[in-house]
Amino acid sequence: MADIILQAQGLTKVYAMGAETVHALKGVSLDVLRGQYVSIMGPSGSGKSTFFNIVGGLDKPTAGEVVMDGQRFGDLNSSQMAWVRCHKVGYIFQSFNLIPSMTALENVAIARIFSGLTPSEARKHAAAVLDQVGLGHRLRHVPSELSGGQQQRVAIARAMVNKPEMILADEPTGNLDLHTGEDIIRLLVALQKERNITVITATHDMKMLAASDVVVWIRDGQIARVAQRDEITIEVGSIDGKTLA
Amino acid sequence: MITMNSQPSIPLQTRVPWSVVFFVSWGSLRRRIFRSLITMIGVVLGIAFLTYMLVNDRMVNSLVAMKDDAVNVLLQKAGVDIFRNGPDTMVLLLIGLSLLTCLAGIINAMLMSVTERIKEIGTLKCLGAEDSFIVKTYFVESSLQGVLGTACGALAGLLVSVAVNAAIYGGVVFSVFPWMAVLKAELIAFLIGSVMSVLASIIPAYWAACKQPVDAMRVEE
User: How far is residue B59's CA from residue B43's CA, in Å, rounded to a whole number?
Assistant: First the structure.
């Protein structure tokens, strides 16, 4: 029995860019099952990031609805949305988005403080999670003293510390070299399998495909194709016969 | 089979207590100590200048009121119009200008220190920070910086003003020191400095906190 954790229903997003209006999303609907690893693929400007931000509760759609665990985002006030972002979703960004003045430990602990823990309890939890992602020896370093891969691990620890049901990763390997990127993907997959966390990534990194249960292609603000893992054939230089750009 | 979970409705986010807000703000000031000091110096200089102008005016007024010939000679040498009735418009103009300089200095320093961190505000919102938490941390931070900076500035302005006047007019300035008027001037400078520091910080912080997280993260630094 599969259960739907996230539903996107007819999402549209219109931006006003000066006199012009840009239709970033033109009615996107998608169901995501609990525990799935979903990759959203698409070129820059396809609406991929917009879709990603809206289903993550980081932005509001112009029309349509996001439903997470039976709860419509549109019905929630700003404090309830803060609760959802804190307890249900963990976010990972391409540029890591760590607070530069805080140490690795503090960066993770601040997320735990928002869930209602005292600073000293939060630090204990944060240290344990950082240890799990292999950074137990780097707790007191600020982001500028860490490599890109290490910074992304801190970001993963921060996303994990409140035990979310869903992880949203926006091009998590975009700023990393090949090997570091593969490490990060392995870490995400391990978390997904161990804890039955739903992972949604926006990416144009082909390495991600092998890890995905479902791949969604977005083009021009609409879903061009949804493929289950067994439908995807990967050959060197192409996927499903499409040459990689 | 596909089912939809029917979850109980989402609770309100836990309020972070003031003690933790204070802890977070203090940590932020301490870790960015160099940047925090530069912001504070902006406040100190603005208020010191304003206080100097105000206290100077009060002290000169009390010297003029002595109507002592020897002091009058010194006052005239220093360019003070001792025969005027009511306030000296030139001095008022200078005080007005020093007030503007002071406001511009404080607003610039505090505004910069918030706007350079608007992306952080977006990130904190992604982690589950409530809008009120953001505003509270910037309130605590700017209060500490504003009050401490203003106190230092008001003291510095007073000391310089007393020193300059003592150097020009000698010990007589202490015998007719206008305590009440100077105290009032200090109070005015202190209120202006503290209130402006806090406003120039929490207004942009509130503006950023009310945005959708993704919009705050997109704001150019």
Answer: 24
